[in-house]
C-alpha cells in the first residue's frame, strides 16, 4: 500500500528547536512532563463527576480532598524517572512545571494537579494553545504551574530567532454559566428552561443521545480532546468540550490547520487519548467500543490508513494487576492502556504492567516498547500521553 505523506504539513524554514509539532509520532525532541505534588481530587459538581468518573470512586470527589500522600509521592517518582529516561536515554529536552500547592488555588477553593499538562496545553505548528477549561477547579492551572515554562519557551524562541505564538485562554468575566440549567439542585423547571436558553447541546450516536454535563454558553475545551494529524486536528465533543470550544480553537489555530470532529460513542467522553492511538503515519489503534472504523474512515486523513481495533477489551480483562492491588484508577477506565506516548514512529512508552499490550505492539507492529512504571500517575487521572506535552517533533 502506498501511503500519502502529509505533504500539507507546513515545512520548517530553518530547523525549529523550541516549538514545532504537527502530529503525535514524528521524532520527539522536546517535551513538558508534569508534576504530581499536592494533587487534589477535582471538586466539580456531582452531575459532572457522575458523567466522567468511575462510579466506585465518586465519594472521593469532594472539596479539599487530597489524593493519598503515598500515591502522590510515588507518582512524582515515576514522573521524575520518566523525565530522566527521556533526557538520558533519548537525549530529549524536558521542561518541568513549578510545584504548586493546589489547595490554595482558585482563591482557596482548590485545584487539581500539575501532572496532566496534555489537557491544558497543545502545540500546533509553532503555536501553543491553552485550553479554555470547563472545570472550575482547573482554572488558573496553566498560569500557576506552567507560567515559567511558557516564559522559557518564549525566551528560547527569541534567542533562536524563531517566531512562536502562545495563545493564552480568555479570562471569564463574571459568573461562569457553563453548568447553568444542569446542576442537581437546579429546580426541574429551571433546569429545562436553563438548558434550553443556555444552549445545552446533545450528541446523537445512532439511536442514543448523550447529554453532556456542560452547556454551550461559553467556549470550553480541553486540549486532550484533540490530536494532530498533519494539518488536520481530530477532536471530539465531550463532557468538557462544547461546540463553542471547537469554534474557538478553529479561530485561534494558524492557517492551514483545521479541526474535524469524530463521532465517538463514549457516554463518559473526556479526552480522546484513550480512544485513538496513532503509532506512526498510516497506522492507528482504536477502541472499538468508542469509535467505529467507518466513522474514522469518514475523515480523509485516515482514508488509506491501517486502522486497528484493540483485539481485546481491557475492561473485561482478568487482571494480574488486581491481584497485586495496584493503586486505584480513581479517574479512568482501563482503556487508559491506549494512553501511550510516542518517542518516534518506532518507539513508544507504555506502562510496564501493560505487558499484553506491549507485546502486541512489538509483535504486530514491530514497535520498540519502552516499559516504564506509571501506575501511580495513572491513579491521578492519566498515563504517558496525558502527563506530557510535545513541544518539538521533527518533521520527517
Ligand atoms: N477518559 C479516558 C478514560 O477513562 C481517560 C483519558 C485520560 N486522558 C487525559 N488526557 N487525562 O478512558
TrEMBL record:
Residues 183-209 are annotated as: Disordered. Residues 197-209 have a biased composition (Polar residues). Keywords: Transferase. This is Glycine amidinotransferase, mitochondrial. Pathway: Amine and polyamine biosynthesis; creatine biosynthesis; creatine from L-arginine and glycine: step 1/2. One of its GO terms (biological process) is creatine biosynthetic process. GO terms for cellular component: mitochondrial intermembrane space. Its EC number is 2.1.4.1. The lineage of its organism: Eukaryota, Fungi, Dikarya, Ascomycota, Pezizomycotina. The keyword Transferase applies. Belongs to the amidinotransferase family. The active site is at residues 222, 271, 386. InterPro entries: AmidinoTrfase. GO terms for molecular function: glycine amidinotransferase activity. Residues 184-195 have a biased composition (Basic and acidic residues). It comes from the Eukaryota.
Amino acid at each position: 500500500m502506498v501511503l500519502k505523506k502529509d505533504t500539507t504539513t507546513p515545512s520548517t524554514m530553518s530547523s525549529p528547536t523550541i516549538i514545532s509539532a504537527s502530529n503525535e509520532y514524528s521524532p520527539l525532541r522536546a517535551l513538558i512532563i508534569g508534576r504530581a505534588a499536592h494533587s487534589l481530587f477535582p471538586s466539580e459538581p456531582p452531575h459532572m463527576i457522575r458523567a466522567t468518573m468511575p462510579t466506585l470512586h465518586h465519594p472521593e470527589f469532594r472539596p479539599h480532598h487530597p489524593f493519598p500522600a503515598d500515591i502522590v509521592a510515588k507518582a512524582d517518582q515515576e514522573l521524575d524517572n520518566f523525565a530522566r529516561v527521556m533526557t538520558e536515554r533519548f537525549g530529549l529536552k524536558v521542561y518541568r512545571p513549578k510545584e504548586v500547592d493546589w489547595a490554595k488555588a482558585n482563591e482557596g477553593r482548590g485545584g487539581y494537579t500539575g501532572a496532566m499538562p496534555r489537557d491544558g496545553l497543545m502545540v500546533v505548528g509553532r503555536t501553543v494553545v491553552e485550553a479554555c477549561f470547563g472545570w472550575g477547579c482547573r482554572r488558573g492551572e496553566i498560569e500557576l504551574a506552567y507560567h515559567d515554562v511558557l516564559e522559557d519557551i518564549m525566551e528560547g524562541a527569541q534567542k533562536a530567532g524563531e517566531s512562536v505564538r502562545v495563545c493564552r485562554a480568555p479570562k471569564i468575566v463574571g459568573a461562569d454559566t457553563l453548568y447553568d440549567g444542569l446542576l442537581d439542585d437546579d429546580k426541574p423547571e429551571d433546569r429545562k428552561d436553563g438548558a434550553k436558553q443556555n444552549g445545552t447541546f446533545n450528541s446523537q450516536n445512532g439511536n442514543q443521545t448523550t447529554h453532556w454535563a456542560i452547556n454551550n454558553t461559553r467556549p470550553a475545551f480541553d486540549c486532550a480532546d484533540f490530536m494532530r494529524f498533519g494539518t488536520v486536528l481530530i477532536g471530539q465533543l465531550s463532557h468538557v468540550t462544547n461546540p463553542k470550544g471547537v469554534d474557538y480553537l478553529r479561530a485561534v489555530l494558524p492557517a492551514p490547520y483545521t479541526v474535524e470532529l469524530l463521532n465517538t460513542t463514549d457516554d463518559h467522553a473526556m479526552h480522546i487519548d484513550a480512544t485513538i492511538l496513532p503509532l506512526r503515519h498510516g497506522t492507528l489503534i482504536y477502541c472499538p467500543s468508542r469509535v467505529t472504523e467507518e466513522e474514522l474512515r469518514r475523515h480523509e486523513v485516515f482514508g488509506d490508513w491501517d486502522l486497528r481495533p484493540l483485539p481485546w477489551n481491557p475492561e473485561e480483562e482478568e487482571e494480574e494487576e488486581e491481584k497485586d492491588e495496584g493503586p486505584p484508577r480513581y479517574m479512568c477506565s482501563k482503556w487508559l492502556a491506549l494512553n501511550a506516548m510516542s518517542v518516534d514512529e518506532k518507539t513508544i512508552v507504555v506502562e510496564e504492567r501493560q505487558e499484553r499490550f506491549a507485546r502486541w505492539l512489538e509483535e504486530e507492529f514491530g514497535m520498540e516498547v519502552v516499559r516504564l512504571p506509571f501506575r501511580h500517575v495513572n491513579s491521578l487521572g492519566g498515563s504517558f500521553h496525558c502527563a506530557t506535552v510535545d513541544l518539538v517533533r521533527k518533521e520527517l
